[in-house]
Amino acid sequence: RFNKPGKPVRFLLVEAGRRINLTRYMVEKPLRPPAFCQALRKHLSNARVVGVWQPNLERIMILDFSSARGEYKLVAELFAKGNILLLNGEGRILHALSTVKVGGRTLARGETYAQPSSGATVPLGRLEEFMEALKKFKGEVVRALTKIYGVGGVYAEEFLLRAGVEKSKNCREISAEEAERILKAALTVFQGLKGPQPCLYLEADGRPAAVSPFPLQRFKNLKLERFETLNEAVDEFYSRFEAERVKAEKGEKVRLQLEELKRIASEQEARLKGLKAEIASLQRIGETIFRNASLLHQLQEILKGMANKGLNWRQIEAEVSEARKKGTLPLILVSALNPKDKQVKVRLGSLEFELSLAKSVYQEASAYFDKAKRLKAKLLNLEKVLKETLEKMASIEAFVAEVEAEPIRLGRVREKEWYEKFRYSYTSGGLLIVAGRDASSNEILVKRYAKPSDLIFHSDVAGSPFTLLRVEDRPPSEASIRQAAQFTACYSRAWREGWSAIDVYHVKPEQLSKKAPSGLFLARGSFMVYGKKNYLHGVPLRLALAVKLDGRPKILAAPPEAAEAWASFIVEVAPGKVRAKDLAVKAKGKLVEIAPKEL
Q1: Residue 154 sits in which domain range?
Q2: Which strands form 223-226's sheet, in the order they lie side by side?
Q3: What is the DSSP letter of 165?
Q4: 34: domain CATH number?
Q5: Peptide bond into 55 cis (omega under 30)
Q6: Residues 147-201: pLDDT tens digits?
Q7: Are residues 395 and 429 in the same domain?
Q8: Residue from 520, 524, 492, 523 nearest 505 by CA
Q9: What is the DSSP letter of 115?
Q10: Residue 314 and residue 258: Cα distance in Å, rounded?
Q11: H runs (alpha helix) in 406-510
């Protein structure tokens, strides 16, 4: 982040192996900066950029910084996987994004930084040397060109396309005539750097395909967008890529949620189906028991009679088995005995169920109906839960469709104006009013931003701000002067004291001086006023909180008369017993109530 007094804040983006550019777009920041970024902050906060250079036109950018802590260099390597390194004034590595050992170089803390050997091995334009270099390579000519001239694959392919040479052709098969054509094409491409025409290439669906400092023939069938500077083109290219990535991640995250909901819904539907089948089975058993109550009661009595005669369960089982062989009712209905629970398993038609010998037939039937009733309550609850799951799925499916159909929107960094660090507003005539917030900002406002044509407002009340009325091509109206005076009055200590009105005066900037008479000390934010003071008496302390629609809605405090000229939604406030901060919160809340939600 670069700050320069009077200039908008600029943001520099560095991606190892990809890009370095100033961006006009908002970048999502992690809640906690990575350790490497924290190290950069530690050393480079409040440092000045004193130099930017590109050694030997390699894909390396070096930024020189100077601060009270010392001299530093930030090195951005943009080739291969890339790296970002912070060096001290002696060129020793303080921090590295990646610690690597490659090509005879060790990039690690404490090591002296060494640039990689130059990628280009042959001066451009020397045919004999070019031919000799080609003979040393065994593979494709396109790969050889990236090594020989230290360019990326895109530009190596452009050389060959313009020369009419197949990129996959073996280096040793390149004729002298083809080599000459390749050299001429390379020279033509490099000539484009002298008169750059930065451009961005887009696929048919609008996705970014490539960015270049000049038009390339290999992308002639793609849509082309031109830019004033290469920085703008690079910023647009990578910002769109990033927006695509964020959109894809957002969609993927939601799709995973949808898949999880589908799994849950499938399990709930299976459970629902099982419950319905179980309820139906329990009801059928209960009904079957009622319909066959006499026969089943007879079965219970026979079995209990056997037990009362002193037969053990093994003997009873033998009796039942013999009866089944003979087809004797009702013992033929018994499919199994459960002596532990004093139950018998009965088969009637297609149904098989447990029948207790300790309860009556009707009690057993009621038990099955009661169990079915309890499961019905579970069924209703599960149906409700499934409905909620399906509603969530429908909502997420709609959201996924919305995300996929939504065009990529890049959030631009809003460049703040110089006056936004102060208190500011506008007169009914559209003139800018700017007031200091404290002694320090009073000093900065007058000394750095006041123009000879401006008017400076102040009052004799302690704690009064110095206020600037920006006057451009013609003298301000009486209304504008009156409104600037009222703005000054409202931000003086008179508001806190609960006064209803005070006197305010205005002067020209040249009437203010930091030179005090002998023996008098001027504190920071104070000025001597020489010459005539133009007083406005009884300036009322009243402010309006208003919504100004200018590109984007913003809430400003303004003199009521001024706000009525450019705002549709206004809440007026005046000094009272409520603290200024609490009053501002209340007024803002009221403003939110009366303003349309779409704002």
Answers
A1: 127-240
A2: 208-212, 199-202, 223-226
A3: -
A4: 2.30.310.10
A5: no
A6: 888 788 899 999 999 999 999 999 989 999 999 999 999 999 988 888 889 999 9
A7: no
A8: 492
A9: P
A10: 58
A11: 439-444, 478-490, 493-497
Residue type at 580 in one-letter notation? A
Shared domain for 381 and 313, answered yes or no, is yes
Give the CB-side neighbour count of residue 87, counting CA atoms within 13 A. Answer: 19
What pLDDT, on the 0 to 100 scale, is given for residue 116?
84
Q: Which residues pair with 64 in a beta bridge?
A: 51, 73
What tens digit of pLDDT does each residue of 141-150 get? 999 998 888 7
CA distance 234 to 22: 9
Contact 477, 429 (CB under 8 A): yes
Contact of 544 with 572, CB cutoff 8 Å? yes
Q: Which two structure tokens, joined as six digits, stand for 243?
A: 């927006």
Angle at 26 between CA 238 and CA 230, to 5 degrees: 40
Could you tell me the two tokens for 310?
């002193």
Q: Which residue bears the tokens 């990646």?
A: 98
Residue pair 211/199 in contact (Cβ under 8 Å)? The answer is yes
- What CATH number is associated with residue 194? 1.10.8
234-288 pLDDT, tens digit per residue, is 999 998 888 888 778 888 888 899 999 999 999 999 999 999 999 999 999 999 9
Tell me which amino acid residue 529 is. V
Q: Running DSSP on this structure, what letter comes out for residue 531?
A: S
User: Reduced to 3 states, what is the DSSP secondary structure of residue 458?
Assistant: strand
Q: Are residues 427 and 499 in the same domain?
A: yes
399 and 503, same structural domain? Answer: no
In a shared domain, residues 541 and 477: yes
Q: Determine how many CB atoms are found less than 10 A away from the CB of residue 4.
A: 10
Number of domain units in the chain: 4
* SS percent in the chain: helix, strand, coil, step 5: 45, 25, 35
Helix (H, G, I), strand (E, B) or coil at 322: helix
Same structural domain for residues 105 and 150?
no
- For residue 342, what are the contacts with CB-CB under 8 A and spacing of at least 6? 356, 357, 358
